[in-house]
Amino acid sequence: MQAEKKQSWLAIWLSLISNLLLTFIKIIIGVTFKSQVLIADGIHNAGDVIASAAAFGAMRISNQPADDDHPYGHGKAEVLGASFVAVILALAAIWTGYHSVAALLGPAPEAHWLALVAAVVSLVWKQGLYLYTLRIGKSVNSKSLLATAYDHLADVYASLAAVIGIGLALIGEAYELPYLVYGDPAAGIIVSILVMKLAVDMGREAVDVLMEKNVKQEQIERYTSLIQAIPEVKRIDRLRAREHGHYVLVDLRVSIPGEMSIQEGHDVSRKIKRAVMDADSQVDEVLIHINPWYNE
Q1: How far is CA 168 from the centre of its chain?
Q2: Which of 69, 210, 237, 251 is such that its CA lies 20 to 30 A from the CA of 193?
Q3: Contact criterion met (CB below 8 Å) for 126 and 82
C-alpha cells in the first residue's frame, strides 16, 4: 500500500511539473510565431496546472482516515477533484474553439517549423504521461489520477491536431496551396470538440459517483456468487455497492437459519465480509444486516 501511494504522488508531481514546462514552452513559441493552435494548447496546459494542483489536494484529503464528521472516510474528495478537472477541460474547449474560429475567419498566420517541433515534443511527452498515469490510476483506483490521465489524453488529442494543423500550414506555404495555410486554426476547432467530449464524459462519471450510482452489474454478480457460496446464507435479500472515491462500500441484507444464535450469526457476517474483501481489494467496508430464515 505504501508503494502504491508513492507511485500515486510521483505521477501527480510528474504531471504538475510537466504541465508547467509545457505551458511555458507552448505559449512562448505560439505567441512568437503566431500559432493559434499552439497558443490554445498552451492555455489548455495552463488549465492543466490548476487541474493537477486540484488532483494533488484531492488525493491528500481522500487519504485521510475516517473521523467523527466523516465516518465513511474522505474518498469522495477525489471525485470532487475529478469534477473540477472536467470543468477546467470544458472551459479550455470553449476558449480554444472561440479563438480558433476567430483565427479561421481572419488572415492566415505564417506557420513556423519551431511550432511544429514544440507540438511533436508535446505529443510524445503527453502520450507517455497518459499511459503512465492511467496505469497507476487503475492500479490504485484513484479518481483523481484517472482524471489527470484523461486530461493528458486530451492534451494528446490537442498536440496531434496541432502537429497536423501546423504541418498542413507549412505544406500550404511551401507549395502555395491557399486552403492548407488555414490548417492551424482548423485543427484548433477539432481540438475543442474532442476536449469538450472528454470533459462531458468525465463529468458524467463524477456525477454518477456523487449520486451514489450502483457499481457495475458485473461487480454485483461477482459479490452475489461469493456470498451465495457460503453455506449458511439461504437468501440474499438486498445487495448494493457504491464507489466512495478510490474504494467501494457494500450494503447487504442476507437471510440465515432463524435458529442460529447471535454468535453464530456474527460469525457468518464475518465470513461474508472476509470473502468479499479478500476477493476485491477495492472494497473498504461491508455492512451486513442479518434476517431470520425458516424452512416453511
Answers
A1: 32
A2: 210
A3: no
Q: What are phi and psi of 11, to 5 degrees?
A: -60, -40
Higher pLDDT, 34 or 123: 123
- Same-domain pairing of 134 and 254: no
Q: Which domain range does residue 282 map to?
A: 217-293
The reply to whether 267 and 143 lie within a common domain is no
For the sheet containing 283-293, what is the strand order?
235-243, 248-257, 283-293
Alpha helices in the chain (DSSP H): 2-33, 36-62, 76-105, 113-140, 143-174, 183-210, 217-228, 262-279
Q: C-alpha cell of 145?
A: 489520477
What backbone phi and psi angles, to 5 degrees, belong to 224? -60, -45
- State how beta strands 283-293 and 248-257 pair: parallel
Torsion angle in degrees (nearest 10) through CA of 59, 60, 62, 64: 160
Distances (CA, A) of 212 to 9, 135, 215: 27, 25, 9
Please tell me the pTM assigned to this model. Answer: 0.65
By CB neighbour count within 10 A (0-12 exposed, 13-18 middle, 19+ buried), where does 81 fall? Answer: buried
CA distance 268 to 278: 15
DSSP state, 257? E
Q: Work out the number of other CB atoms within 10 angstroms of the CB of residue 224.
A: 13
CA distance 12 to 132: 11
**Candidate from 102-111, 193-202, 284-293 with smallest mean pLDDT:** 102-111
Q: What is the pLDDT of residue 239?
A: 94
Domain count, the chain: 2
Residue 111 C-alpha cell reads as 506557420
Q: Are residues 143 and 243 both part of a single domain?
A: no
| CA pair distance 26, 111, nearest whole angstrom | 14
Residue 192 CA neighbour count, 13 Å, CB half: 22
